[in-house]
Amino acid sequence: MVFIIAAAGAPINACFAADTKPANAPAAPKLVASVELPKLQKQLDSIKQRVSAATSDNQLSALNDETLQLAADADALVASIQPDRAQVQAQLDILGPPPAEGAMPETGVVAQQRNTLNKSKTLIDGQLEHAKAISTGAVNLSVQIVDIRRNALRTQMALNSGSILSGGFWSPLFNTAPEDARRLDNFGEQLKEAWLAAWEPGWRFGSAALLIMALAVWAFGSRLLDRLLAWFCINVLPEGRLRRSFLATATALITVFSVGLGAQFILLLILRHPDASQLVIDFTIEIFKLTLFSALIAGLGRGLLSIKRPSWRLLSIADPVAVAMRSLPPMLASFILVFGAVEQMNNLVGTSVATTIFGNGISALLVALTAGYGPLRTNRTRRKLLAEGGEPEARRTIAGLIHLCITVTAVAILLSLLIGYIALARFLTYELIWVGIVLSCLYLLIHLVVDLSDSLFSPATLIGQRIKHSLGLDDRHLGQASTLLAAIGKTVLILLAAVALLNGTFGSTTPLALLNKAVDMWGGKGLEKLNIVPAHVMNALIFLAIGIYVLRSARRWLDKDFLPKTMMEPGMRASLVILFSNMGYVLIALMTLSTLGIQWNNLAWIVSALSVGIGFGLQEIVKNFISGIILLIERPVKVGDLITISGVEGDIRRINVRATEIQLGDRSTVIVPNSQFISQNVRNATMGNAQGVATIALTFPLDIDPEQVRNLLLETYRDHESIQDTPAPSVTFSQLGPSGIVLSVTGFVSSPRIVAGTKSDLLFEMLKRMRAAGIVLSTPQKMILENSPPAAPGILDTTVQ
């Protein structure tokens, strides 16, 4: 009892100190919880504030190290507090439990000692819980910092995380972080356990069957389906281009189906065991989706290159070039599968940022090398083919542009990796892959839709003949239906492709959402330290390019394919095409501004400034613009009309937004503002009637035979090939005067544009026939004043003739 009282009077953290330390050990500094806890808590709060305000990866990395050190300090404080708590608990154990109710009460000294020890224990427990809470908070904060840094690799493309030539980039390969090693080992053990569990007794036979089916599908599935597809195309599909497009599209789908079916068997092999961990299940499902995505890349390569059937190839490339490109799609698909699996593993396991950067950098490097090697290899094959005397395909501008874009993107990825912008390289890599897949699918499907439309409504096919006879259509209507259906299909496909390109991922239907690339990277944070949103800028540029291309294609389709098959006159067709083009450009401009993220309520000042500008300098432009719209809608004049305005006579060749182009008879062009057609008198010679009138008025002497002259003039008109029989030519007795008889002969021609030439031919022929018939034209009287020699003053000799 004396010992207990003495211990209670001594400091709690010093009790039994002599029994727990060696005599020769140096005295370690003792952590005082009441002093250290406020410091650690203040430090934790300060780190949280700095993390929320951090703008660079270096700051986050330093804060992460500081947070880990804080967690270590808190753990050290917990370790220093636990002996004190154990010591107090030991003293309470010596005192024993408090006496039960009704038993003899303990002495006052013992009761005081018990109260003191309980208060000390409560204080120490509170300090211990506080230290543990600080340690847990620091660990959680470290995890959050790592997540922020990992997300920054996706969203902040201007984040410099170190060149691939630096030692820090390759450090995860040779010096793995202990936490990463632990997590990866744990994940590997879970995978191993899931694989071994699939081969336990009772599960072994089913696993073997699934594995054999997967291997059989991978080995023989594509070959068998290719043969069935070839038989179907030759024996079922009609002859024509539909066979080529259907074969290419079906080949890509067959590849995805066969590879995906085998992967599905492997997925069932692992997931059918109930003891599989959730981490293994998630990883296996993601790998299955990634396999489908990689199979799509390989399938598109097989379908477009068509190595086995070069005569059915959609792409206009030579066989040696196609053979040279044969290995590129499977190689690219393999890289995406392997390193996509590594990235998914890093995301699920939660490895460090350095490991994530390493995986992203290696993936971008291999994809860039593959993409850059493709154009180089094809160009080298073409040069070799030329050197051997062969004839490579004639490269189109769009093909050269695609090669140039791929090469430039590959070089940009390599430069980004060399200077340390791994996030930018990752972004460009996934953009290159995604744009290539979308455009390849668009190319295949557009050809399939167009060829299918032509085959369905072709009079040469059985289906087209049945449609023609059942609906009572002629060939012209079938052609219009084919053109319209193909245009609708192409429009829908282009819109879907635009949505896929703008959103980065095509909803939830894309395999693995393209490795989660677009949704994570287009978050709107923009470039680091720059107020630029890459998603909005890229979307606007993509939309602008696609919009202009679609508009021009639609305009060309209207002008060349659809409208010529209708009963519209050429002027009406031209007006519709121009109106459609103008409205399309306005719509594209408005939607491009919306894609940039510009809110219309923020453009009030622009509208105000524009209104002032219209009031002063833009008034004429706006007036001509509105007049042009009125001309296209009301159509008082249209393209092809022969008009006269302000003394200018010619044919309308084009009605633009601001002015109208009029071609004169000498092939020169006069530009007339559209407002003049609204405010001035315009003579339209072809508006109501396309016929022209050739009228010639001649004056004959009074002594001629009118009937003879009349018959001669009518015969001249009737014999001319340009004069129409209906209405018949006519001769009118216009005037009778002292100078003679005026006869006016009139005939109709097919167009006002040939009136001048017809009148010239008629005059030549009339003069020839009148001279042969002895008919002369009336000679006008002339008064001649002559001055004679002066015979007498004031006498003037005047002769009148």
Q: Which regions contain 5 or more consecutive residues with pLDDT less than 50?
A: 1-28, 505-532, 792-801
The helix fraction, in percent, is 55-70%
Largest sheet, strands/sense/barrel = 5 strands, antiparallel
Quaternary structure type: single chain
Give the strand order, joined by hyphens, for the main sheet: 4-3-2-1-5
By DSSP (H or I, 4+ residues per run), the number of helices equals: 25
Give the strand content: 5-15%
**Terminus-to-terminus distance:** 171 Å
Shape: elongated
| Number of separate strands | 10
Instruction: Evaluate the radius of gyration.
Output: 46 Å
Structural class: alpha+beta
Number of separate domains: 4
Mean pLDDT, as a whole number? 77
Notes on the structure:
There is one protein chain. By secondary structure, the protein is an alpha+beta fold. It folds into four domains: 2-155, no CATH class; 178-483, no CATH class; 599-688, SH3 type barrels (Roll); 692-784, 2-Layer Sandwich (Alpha-Beta Plaits), CATH 3.30.70. Helix content is 66%, strand content 7%. It contains 25 helices and ten strands. The strands form three sheets. Strands 4-3-2-1-5 form a five-stranded antiparallel beta sheet. The chain has a three-stranded antiparallel beta sheet with strand order 6-8-7. A two-stranded antiparallel ribbon has the order 9-10. The longest helix has 48 residues, at 108-155. It starts with a helix and ends with a strand.
